[in-house]
Amino acid sequence: MALLEVRNLSKNFGGLAAVSEFDLDVEEGEIRGIIGPNGAGKTTLFNVISGTLRPSGGSINFEGQSIAGKRPSAIAAMGAVRTFQRTALFEDFDTMGNVSIARHLHAKETIFGAILGTARKMELANERRAEEIIEFIGLGEVKHELAINLSHGHQRALNVAMALAAEPRLLMLDEPVAGMNPGETAVMTDIIRNLRKDWGITVILVEHDMRTVMDVCEQITVINFGRKLAEGTPDEIVSNDDVIEAYLGSEDILGEDF
Prior knowledge:
Radius of gyration: 19 Å
Order of helices and strands: EEEHEEHEHHHHEHEHEEHH
Strand order of the largest sheet: 6-7-8-3-9-10
Number of helices: 10
Low-confidence stretches: 250-258
Number of strands: 10
Mean pLDDT: 88
Shape: globular
Largest sheet: 6 strands, mixed
């Protein structure tokens, strides 16, 4: 049984099928890339899986349990968490504050804990965990910097750190290297690899930067007009005639190395 199983998934907006009869299996420990042209349905697919949008049809199972139509908070609590294209930060809080807030949003504190005095212990544990996340992401040197003053690369990394605060088993990254320079992209690529290596997190990423996708993903799914066009290893995808025609086009956007 795959960690995430999507079967015959559809999402319609009026008469437009943004996602149609889509199947996807993501195994535990995998780093899966999802690519396709603008408007192909990639973000809609993420939105339906994560609960931001309700599916029009089909099934979505995470760890064998149906999550189709559940609220985003319920899906995140089960361990499937996503980031967004636009970085959503508390700009007037520092890095540590942002991750600490994200930890509190997922804390299991109750009124009984407050009465029994365990709330403070939980707060200290959350602070320690926030510190661990910040160091892992590489933001230790800017942990007291206001989010609004961080570089674009650091803001994107903080966005991932806040998602990690939810303790995901599956992390869905929506264009994690968008707008980054080559140095920032290299750092984020290492973070994605280490999410699996050091934390055992399964990763799905939607990304337009083909070099990053080819570099970090073992399996790639191509979506076009809301349907699965192809699936396979990076070598299989880059040599697939249907993908070249529909997505890569006449120009070799991957460069000579590919």
